[in-house]
Design goal:
With 420 residues, this protein is mainly alpha-helical. The chain has 19 helices and no strands. It is 76% helix and 0% strand. α6 packs antiparallel against α8, α11 crosses α12 and α12 packs parallel to α14.
């Protein structure tokens, strides 16, 4: 009997293959856990320690703040003002300015979380949401400036190179993504057609939202904290899971096999074996990958380029977290994963350029906007979070100022044209 199209044998369809592969991998994972329980326990402890000491204290304030600001309607206020800036540059609604600022100052996966909430609230379309989450998910500046540059390399000046190349690459990707499905008529949110972008209109949008969503202060704070902690527990689960997976893969030699494959793909870059092993680990979890890269044998440039690639790719652990955040929406992960590959290579190229041009690198993050972060990089956790909040406020103020200047210029040009 001939096989039907799309069928293999015994009624198995091609679309069933991924599910069967995941089932096989899950069974193998459980077998390894039973066979090497000590290794699993050590990996889980390492993941838990990383989550509790680094991720939880650094992200919780931003999660709570973003929840409160969104529930108060500040996103609608910002969206009304920033439409003239965000639409022509990135082809996303003005609300994307809020996502961009908080994503560039806090770290993974908060950009995906806020974008998903915008999509659920109808403040961006499916295409705009996919554009947004693809260039607003960044590594935390505190992680790059403190944990990587100071803690791993012992060279604070490397923080400028790493963070500068990371942010520049994502901004360039954001500009390039404006052409992604640009002819899609359904790819533009309905509120983008509103031409009234004055401060008064923004305030009216804020007041209108607060009238519709009257929430007592106690309930607002309680829901924001509960939602933030729940999401961070979810992130912690992913970190622990991938820490265990990496330990098992190292034990069975899978990391070394992946490193060999990467050696063939990245042969033109001439990375030594230790750095290839770091890249292989970084494919799954970026913290471990960056640590191995900083300790690898090789030139400083090779190690820095490897770190830039790992942070740009972000690791399957982070990508799984973003996928979890956008679950329940119609947004697709394909463009996000593709841009992570592009981000990895573009960040490495930019880092090599900045490494060879120290004056440009020094001017990148010594601007007034980023000075709070640089001064707080060697301080306590409180000082670092405070510095991040200061930078977030200054970036947001800069975007609003650009929007207002844009509006003044447009009105002035229209007034001049009327004279003729």
């Amino acid at each position: 009997m001939p096989l039907r199209r799309g069928h293999l044998s015994n009624g198995i369809e091609r679309k069933d293959i991924p599910g069967l592969i995941w089932t096989l991998l899950a069974v193998c994972f459980v077998f390894c856990m039973v066979h090497r329980p000590v290794l699993v326990f050590q990996g889980a402890i390492a993941g838990l320690k990383a989550w509790w000491e680094i991720v939880f204290p650094s992200l919780l304030p931003f999660f709570i703040t973003s929840e409160i600001l969104m529930r108060l309607g500040l996103v609608r206020f910002i969206g009304t003002l920033l439409e003239p800036v965000m639409r022509p540059i990135f082809n996303v609604p003005g609300t994307g300015g809020f996502v961009m600022v908080i994503g560039f100052t806090s770290g993974f996966p908060i950009g995906g979380m806020v974008t998903a909430q915008l999509r659920r609230d109808g403040l961006c379309s499916k295409t705009e949401g996919e554009r947004l989450m693809s260039f607003t998910n960044n590594s935390s500046p505190l992680f790059m400036l403190t944990a990587v540059a100071v803690g791993m390399f012992g060279r604070p000046e490397f923080g400028v190179l790493i963070a500068g190349s990371h942010y520049l690459a994502n901004l360039l990707l954001g500009i390039g993504l404006r052409f992604y499905k640009r002819h899609d008529r359904e790819g533009m949110s309905h509120n983008s057609s509103n031409q009234n972008r004055s401060v008064i209109a923004a305030i009216n949008a804020l007041i209108e939202h607060q009238r519709k969503e009257r929430i007592p202060l106690g309930k607002l704070l309680g829901e924001a904290v509960a939602s933030s902690v729940t999401k961070l527990l979810n992130i912690g689960g992913f970190i622990i899971l991938f820490a265990v997976i990496i330990r098992i893969m190292q034990d069975v030699g899978a990391i070394q096999a992946i490193a060999s494959v990467l050696g063939l793909i990245l042969a033109p870059l001439g990375f030594p074996p230790d750095i290839l092993k770091a890249l292989a680990s970084g494919m799954f979890e970026m913290t471990m990958g960056t640590k191995l890269a900083s300790e690898a044998s090789g030139s400083q440039l090779d190690k820095l380029m490897a770190v830039a690639m790992i942070l740009g790719w972000s690791g399957l652990c982070i990508q799984a977290q973003v996928a979890s955040m956008i679950s329940g929406t119609d947004m697709n992960m394909k463009i996000f994963v593709l841009t992570r590959v592009a981000h990895a290579f573009l960040a490495a190229v930019l880092l090599k350029f900045l490494y060879s041009n120290e004056r440009i690198a020094g001017a990148l993050l010594t601007t007034p906007v980023f000075s709070p972060l640089l001064h707080a990089a060697h301080g306590s956790t409180f000082k670092m979070v405070y510095g991040a909040f200061c930078t977030m406020g200054m970036l947001l103020g800069l975007l609003i100022a650009l929007a207002l200047v844009y509006r003044i210029i447009v009105h002035s040009l229209r007034a001049v044209l009327r004279l003729f």
